[in-house]
Amino acid sequence: MSDITKHRRFVATAVAVTLGATTLAACGGSDDDGEAQSGPAKLTYWTWTPGMDKVVDLWNKGPGKEQQITVTVKKQASGDTLVTKILTAHKAGKGPDLVQAEYQALPTLVSNDAVADIAGEAGDAKGRFADGVWQQTTLGSDAVYAIPQDIGPMMFYYREDLFKKYGLEVPKTWDEFADTARKLKKEDADVDLTTFSANDSGLFAGLAQQAGAEWWTTEGQKWKVGIDDTATQRVADFWGGLVKEGAVDNQPMYTPAWNKALNTGKQIAWVSAVWAPGTLTTAAPDTEGKWKVAPLPQWSASENTTGSWGGSSTAVTTDSENKGAAAKFATWLNTDPEALTALAKEGGIYPAATTAQTSDAFAEPPAYFSNQADFYTVASEIAKTTAPSAWGPNVNVAYTTFKDAFGAAAKNKSDFGAALKTMQDDTVADMKKQGFEVAE
């Protein structure tokens, strides 16, 4: 048995996953993964990306027509809703051929044998992506469970005009970030550098990722949960300390109050990702042209790495009777220049493929950042430094616990370390409850 097969069967058969009220037992991978039926292939693709039907039309009228592979888009909700739908469909043997999957959802889909290993069909696709991005679709193995589609490299956004007004420098390290927050408070007690938002599990996960955290790994035939590892403790203690001393706000993001704070200059920076311009356009319309972007602060001046907040991939399901054909489409969709340009134009995504990040589609900055002509040049350089991630089969449980435990800690300005331990304990308890073997 090959190492790939061993890894796949370990992940696919050693675990059972609960998502919401749906419990599914994993089953072994099929022996014909990657094989396609001969003759014309008609494929279905479940995705939430806007305008995907227009992108798929390019395939159907071009390469797909030549290869007799037709793809039909079926629009879906995103997040846990889609994962649950996929697992339910797979249990009935009626899954689509392809599915858009967020990176953190892939371990759940793999453990339920819902997505196929397409390593044999991916060709030279690996070279089109940053190592840290590609790793998210391999789960650290020689298998390939999806082709990266879009990414969310994290960056630091700040009001250039207000930084000048308050005599602030763009922080290059997290220590400088803390000092900047304190200096701003001395200049104007009514203004915050930013807020810690306990509503945003993905933001915290990305910050931990940047610090070197590995929340889920395998140890022999067991899972190891490291949510309260040293790297994440460092992140929790850092933000908990700033919240406790009042150096940053403790209110959640994406609320009317948060929008107003950004729009009126009561918060002058935001730790976010490459997709932030779209959010700022609606949250702070009066500040267009006043923001700039820079790399995320580092834990030491010698480092150069970022975390990831968001992003998804295109996976081929094990239910597909045309896995080879589906893999061809997935690879084309996320590596072909014409497809990537269309994805950026029609779907508004930031592509995972490194060559696309410097294509003509990103020659001009977002309209909101018309004052920063090199916005996408900066973004592409930051994207190359994306740190590897380590996702597990019950991310949804960890994220839910984060919102509860950190929500209370942020509101009460209490110990973030204790909240992190709760997150660890609840995640481990859930894994054991579902039959996972967890290393202590």
From TrEMBL:
Q: Does the keyword Signal apply?
A: yes
Q: Does the keyword Signal apply?
A: yes
PROSITE patterns attached to this UniProt entry? PROKAR_LIPOPROTEIN
For this UniProt record, give its keywords in alphabetical order, as a comma-separated list. Cell membrane, Lipoprotein, Membrane, Palmitate, Signal
List the Pfam families hit by this protein, alphabetically. Answer: SBP_bac_1 (PF01547)
Q: Which SUPFAM superfamilies match?
A: Periplasmic binding protein-like II
What sections of the sequence does the record tag as coiled-coil?
Answer: none
Task: List the PANTHER family.
Answer: ARABINOSE-BINDING PROTEIN-RELATED, POLYGALACTURONAN_RHAMNOGALACTURONAN-BINDING PROTEIN YTCQ
What's this protein's name?
Answer: Extracellular solute-binding protein
